[in-house]
Amino acid sequence: MDLSYLITPFFAWLVAGCAKFAFNTIREKRLAFDLIGYGGMPSNHSSIVSSAATIIALNEGLQEPALVVALALAFIVILDANSLRQQVGKHAEAINLLNNNKEGKPLRERMGHTRVEILAGVVTGIASAWCVHYAFTYYLN
């Protein structure tokens, strides 16, 4: 098995996670370790699934049936990041308002992604897959 299929999603996750940490650190003007997780720029999930689809397209071509499966998975994940998880965040916000005077840790309200964050994740995933493909094609084979 070509290791590029295993390395690409991990590399995309790493690049997106580091970029998200950097954006949050700059925005908050502090090391933003507590902001690592769901939500934010770029979308890790969108980056991972778009990198998987891209590495299949680059390695196998556009006629590969596995590409259809990867694209279907990518659409599901991206739609989930934009709609369902934003609704979960709205519910968390409402629950936190109801429980504002009670003890306990508040629920995390930032869950979903904006379309710009998703687009940035897709671009990060495609760029990550291209970098891995290029490295395996010209340097590691």
UniProtKB/TrEMBL annotation:
<keyword id="KW-0812">Transmembrane</keyword>
<feature type="transmembrane region" description="Helical">
    <location>
        <begin position="118"/>
        <end position="140"/>
    </location>
</feature>
<protein>
    <submittedName>
        <fullName>Divergent PAP2 family protein</fullName>
    </submittedName>
</protein>
<dbReference type="Pfam" id="PF02681">
    <property type="entry name" value="DUF212"/>
</dbReference>
<keyword id="KW-1133">Transmembrane helix</keyword>
<feature type="transmembrane region" description="Helical">
    <location>
        <begin position="6"/>
        <end position="23"/>
    </location>
</feature>
<dbReference type="InterPro" id="IPR003832">
    <property type="entry name" value="DUF212"/>
</dbReference>
<keyword id="KW-0472">Membrane</keyword>
